[in-house]
DNA sequence: TCTGCATTTCAGAAATTTCTGAAATCACTG
DNA sequence: CAGTGATTTCAGAAATTTCTGAAATGCAGA
């Protein structure tokens, strides 16, 4: 299997960005390739297209599966595994955000709560700072949980409201003054 | 300079998380240390507290400065540099998000536009997929720009609205039907 | 200009991560 | 249940990143 120049460049870019995104080059490339391929690909095709070893492909796919970022398909009369990415970009973004939260935020939230449970340690500043950080993370993850529950249609509406968000918040704060934080 | 057990554990956690956050252990530890220290620290104190080399501290601080995550202070009669993190957690979060966007999103958006400018390459599926991805990123960065403009007070209001966000969006969509995307 | 810290740079060492090829495992088919 | 092909595992090689110590640079008085 050979890549078109467009596919080539797209795949290489995702490979280079991989390290910034916390995945390795190969994983980035495999994902990019699946993303722009109209048909599901098997491991052999991926290996050939990217010029990497078969075992590396296997590990990359395993990694992507652990992120829930690829879907497994089977063709009738062919017992190889074929892989794709979800068609719906929103699916992909939701998964990505959920997984990053799980890996990058949740462990820290757990640790902060743990530290607070260990009780006063005679370091008021550090304790206050930790509590403050935990509260902020809780607020943000709470909001995230809220957003997660919205269907795509509403999310798009929210994101395309343009400059009206601020006014909307004011209106809401007026309707539910009890929710407003006082300093 | 010696750390309390609480500081110790907090700092070590941030060191371990570093790799998931795309920074190295030392940078994570330095940041954590500055974050829970009530007073600004100089490079020597950081070096001693973390048990790392002086040059490593220097590089770590440089990295944190490139992220805009630390502030430089000077004490009268002392020509060493002292470092702190901003007091306001919202400042920190804003900076973090802005920098991650700059490093993780913007280069890809640029690349996607570049690929589209190269014109039809005879691979309809890939071209459509790239356009779709670019549009999604533009929508999300547009929304981000909107959020960025809001002052803290309003952001907190939005994030603490609870289950009312969905209803609010509906109301807004009713008020501005032109904004509603149709399938 | 010289002196004495403070800081940065940088080449190589150490640690870590990624990748490969060979062998092992798995699972379907005849 | 032997044979074949697909996939995974894994130990070591290769590549990359991180860290260090020594040397270089910067900079504020004397």
Brief summary of the model shown:
The structure is a homodimer of 183-residue chains. The first copy, chain A, is mainly alpha-helical. Chain A is 68% helix and 4% strand.
Give an overview of the whole structure.
Two copies of one chain form a homodimer. By secondary structure, chain A is mainly alpha-helical. Chain A has helices spanning 5-21, 25-36, 43-50, 54-66, 89-117, 124-149, 152-159, 165-175, and strands spanning 41-42, 71-73, 82-84. In chain A, strands 1-3-2 form a three-stranded antiparallel beta sheet. Chain A is extended, with a radius of gyration of 22 Å. Chains A and B meet through α1, α5, α6, α7 and α8 of A and α1, α5, α6, α7 and α8 of B. Chain A binds a DNA duplex (30 and 30 nucleotides) through residues 19, 24-26, 42-44, 52-56, 58-59, 62, 79-81.
Instruction: State the distance separating the first and last CA atoms of chain A.
Output: 62 Å
**Cα-atom Rg of chain A, whole angstroms?**
22 Å
Q: Report the count of strand segments of chain A.
A: 3
The geometry of chain A reads as: extended
> How do the strands line up in the largest sheet of chain A?
1-3-2
Largest interface: A-B, 68 and 68 residues
Write the element-wise H/E pattern of chain A from the N-terminal end onward.
Answer: HHEHHEEHHHH
Estimate percent helicity of chain A.
55-70%
Major sheet characteristics of chain A: 3 strands, antiparallel
Write the layout of secondary structure elements.
Two copies of one chain form a homodimer.
Chain A lengths: L4 H17 L3 H12 L4 E2 H8 L3 H13 L4 E3 L8 E3 L4 H29 L6 H26 L2 H8 L5 H11 L8
Antiparallel strand pairs in A: 1-3, 2-3
The first copy, chain A, binds a DNA duplex (30 and 30 nucleotides) through helix 4.
